[in-house]
Write a structure and sequence with these properties.
The protein is of the alpha+beta class. Helices cover 51% and strands 9% of the residues. The chain has 3 domains: 8-83, 2-Layer Sandwich (Double Stranded RNA Binding Domain), CATH 3.30.160; 122-227, DNA polymerase, domain 1 (Orthogonal Bundle); 242-441, Orthogonal Bundle (hpI Integrase, Chain A). A hairpin with an 8-residue loop joins strand 6 (289-294) and strand 7 (303-308). It is elongated and about 135 Å long.
């Protein structure tokens, strides 16, 4: 069939019996190919290096005649330049796919960055760190840390919502400065310390198997707190006089918080948080020994702290054990069950399900302090009073350290000194109860206690 200028009517009228081609007069390389099925498409046909090239442009229903001619002219220009249009189209398709892949990768990277910005924030790091403290048994530290972050970090909403790894020293300094300028110097120092610990934990997480794996995702590579100078905490110096201690003892009643305060005092000034974690199984009635667990400091596991109690403290501990048994007996009777083992029950628990929180006795001590109309004091001041008086009684520094479970660290204590100090601690607590009895009666101290000497196993 001779060439004709392609028009819509001619294309519509073109109905060959088999495959047929209707060639365009305006663009000689362009034709309409008709199939027996009735389908029609624009094609381009040319020769390059003595080889025929045929390319389907597209359906006549989808392409206009002019668009098909433009496409055919483009193919012809490539051939005139010695390029196979199929190769050029393949390269263009590969480039388009590459661009799409790059765009998709960029989009995914932006999405990940946005996800990290929303998930791995300073607030999230603070929450993850306090959760870590709870999991390793440092409940009191976790509560104090969470409170500090809530009051002094989360109130800076923009900083708290920023990615933890992008937090700057200037931002940390601004938070610490605000607390310090409010007259809370101790709180400022504590805040700095807690933030430093959180960032250090995240920084070490990729390399230290002790650290939780969920801290790795924060991507912290430096600690912005390092540039902030530490704020020295002023050491407390409040101690109670004998008259104040007498008034304090007389104010203690039979309520459970008061019993906790009394036992902590009779036991030489024990830390309240450790005392409240004691369970029934921690008291050995045969030896009148109370076992506490000291998790204070950087210990990964709590250290056993044994207290051979003097008579009054032992009677108080035995009464708490009996109280727990009575509570379990009543529960079992009400439920129609056989009483269970009380070993896992808390010594200090109002309803038996959870231990008394450590702030409850502290609040009670503050109430007593207020009623005494003296210089205010708290549990730390009572603990300091106990050690000061024990020192005045002639109790050695080593025995006091073992009795109060502080300052026990270093190579010697960790690996070599396996002496239990049981006799020394028991003698100290017996002497301490006698001293408290004298204070309650208004008597003057009888004199210093001679410290026990260790027996020399090598002596003849």
């Amino acid at each position: 069939m001779p060439r004709q200028r392609l028009t819509l009517p001619r294309i519509a009228a073109f109905k060959p019996k088999g495959d047929g081609f209707l060639w365009d007069e305006d663009m000689p390389r362009l034709a309409v190919r008709a199939r027996p099925s009735g389908a029609k498409s624009f094609i381009f046909k040319a020769t390059l290096n003595y080889k025929d090239i045929r390319i389907t442009i597209g359906s006549t229903d989808a392409w206009t005649i002019e668009a098909a001619r433009d496409e055919a002219r483009k193919f012809q220009r490539w051939i005139d330049d010695g390029k196979d249009p199929r190769d050029v189209l393949r390269e263009l398709e590969e480039a388009r796919a590459s661009d799409e892949a790059a765009a998709k990768a960029a989009q995914e990277a932006a999405k990940r960055a946005a996800d990290e910005q929303s998930r791995y924030t300073l607030r999230a790091l603070c929450d993850a760190y306090t959760g870590h403290l709870e999991r390793i048994g440092k409940g009191k530290s976790a509560a104090a840390t969470r409170s500090a972050f809530k009051c002094h970090v989360f109130t800076h909403e923009a900083i708290a919502a920023a990615p933890a790894r992008e937090i700057t020293s200037h931002q940390i300094a601004a938070m610490v400065r605000k607390v310090r300028e409010a007259g809370k110097e101790r709180a400022a120092g504590i805040l700095r310390s807690y933030l430093s610990a959180a960032f250090n934990a995240a920084k070490r997480a990729p390399f230290d198997s002790v650290m939780p794996a969920d801290l790795i995702a924060f991507g912290v590579e430096h600690n912005p707190v390092d540039n902030i100078p530490a704020i020295a905490v002023q050491a407390g110096n409040r101690t109670l006089s004998a008259d104040e201690l007498r008034a304090y003892l007389n104010a203690l009643g039979d309520e459970l918080p008061d019993q906790a305060l009394r036992l902590a005092l009779l036991a030489g000034g024990q830390r309240m948080a450790q005392l409240l974690r004691a369970k029934v199984s921690d008291y050995d009635a045969d030896t009148a020994t109370l076992r506490l667990w000291d998790g204070k400091g950087k210990r990964q596991s709590a250290r056993e702290h044994l207290l051979p109690l003097a008579p009054k403290a032992a009677a108080l501990a035995a009464g708490l054990v009996a109280r727990a048994k009575e509570r379990e007996q009543k529960r079992a009777e009400d439920a129609g069950e056989v009483p269970g083992d009380v070993g896992g029950m808390w010594l200090f628990s109002t309803h038996g399900k959870v231990a008394m929180i450590f702030t409850t006795p502290g609040k009670r001590a503050a109430e007593i302090s207020a009623t005494m109309k003296c210089e205010p004091f708290d549990l730390r001041d009572i603990r300091r009073t106990c050690e000061t008086m024990l020192a005045g009684m002639g109790i050695s520094r080593d025995t006091r350290a073992q009795l109060l479970s502080h300052g026990i660290s270093g190579v010697q204590a960790a690996h070599y000194d396996r002496h239990a100090y049981t006799d020394e601690k028991r003698a100290a607590l017996v002497a301490w109860e006698a001293r408290l009895d004298a204070i309650e009666k208004g008597e003057k101290p009888a004199g210093n206690v001679r410290p026990l000497r260790r027996k020399n196993k090598n002596a003849a």
